[in-house]
Amino acid sequence: MFNALLVEKDAEGKTHAAVRSIGMDRLPEGDVTVAVEFSTVNYKDGICVGPGGGLVRTYPHVPGIDFAGVVEASSDPRYAVGDKVICTGWRVGEARWGGYAQKARVKADWLVPLPAGLTTRQAMAVGTAGFTAMLAVMALEDHGLVPGAGQVLVTGAAGGVGSVATAILAHLGYEVAAVTGRPETADYLRGLGAAQIVARADLAETVKRPLEGEVWAGCIDAVGGAMLARVLGQMKYGASVAAVGLAGGATLPASVIPFLLRGVNLLGIDSVMRPYDDRVRAWDRIAQDLPMDKLEAMVQPATLSDLPRLGADILQGRVQGRVVVDVNA
C-alpha cells in the first residue's frame, strides 16, 4: 500500500481530491516502478487537481506531471534498482497516473537519469517549469542570443518558469528585465538576478502600430495573448521570443510586420514530447547554470494534503516561484 492524492468523480460529475491509501496492484503498466521522493506543482497540475480536471481522461486519477525518486523495480536494462530518476512530460499526470503518490510506474523511455550534482528535491524544485525555462534559454542561444546583446525580457517572471528563467539568464551574464503584475515580488525578482522590474500594465495593452522602438534582445514569454503581441513589436532586429505559456490567453492578436520587417523569430517551446537527448542536455545545463542558492530562494515546501489548495492557487496566479512536494511527509 502507498499514499496518493486520488481524484475521483461522483455521480453528478463533480471531482473530489483527497489523500488515499492505494494498493500496488492499481499502478498502471510500465517498465519501471519508482519510489517517489518529491513532486512539484505546475499550472497543468492545478487543472488536473481542480474541479472539472480538463486534461484528465479517466477517473479515478493520480495527478502530478513531474516526479523524482529511486528505481524500485525495472525490466529495462537502462535502469537498475537504486538508480535515481526524473520524470517530466509524456502526459504523465494527465492521461496516465502521475507523481502525486509514493509510488509510480512508467515507461523507461519517459525517464532521464538524475544529473550529477542534483538531488531529487532540487530536481523537483526545477520540475517541468524549470526544465521548460532551460529549453527556452537554449533556444534563444541557438538563435544567436549572447550576453551583452541587450536586455532580455522575461514575462510572468514571478511564476515557476519565469523565476527559473530569470535566475539562469542572470547567472549566464544577461541583463534581465522581469515583468510582473505583483509589485510585492520586486525584491524577490531582484534577488534572483533581475536588473529591471517592468510593470505588467506597461505591456498589457496592444497598440495600433505593429512596430515600436527596438528594446529587447530576447524574450522568454510565459503569458501569450496581448502581451506577447505587444512584445513582438518591441524586439530588436533579428531577435527571438521563446513562447512557453499562455497564462494571458491562447489568442495572439499580432501582426506579421515584426517578422517581415525586423526578422523577429517566434520560437515555440514544447517540453512534453521533447526527445531524450534534448532532455538530458537540458538537465545537464540546469545542473551547471542554475545557481542552487537562487533555486532554494524560490522554493516553498508542501505535502500531498496541501495539493488541492495549491492547485487552486496556481490557477489564480497566487503561487510565487516553485513548490516542492514531499510525498512521504
From TrEMBL:
GO MF annotations in UniProt: acryloyl-CoA reductase (NADPH) activity
InterPro entries linked to this entry: Acrylyl-CoA_reductase_AcuI, ADH-like_C, ADH-like_N, ER, GroES-like_sf, NAD(P)-bd_dom_sf, Zn-ADH-like_protein
Enoyl reductase (ER) domain segment(s): 14-325
Pfam families tied to this protein: ADH_N, ADH_zinc_N
CDD domains: MDR_yhdh
Name of the protein: Acrylyl-CoA reductase (NADPH)
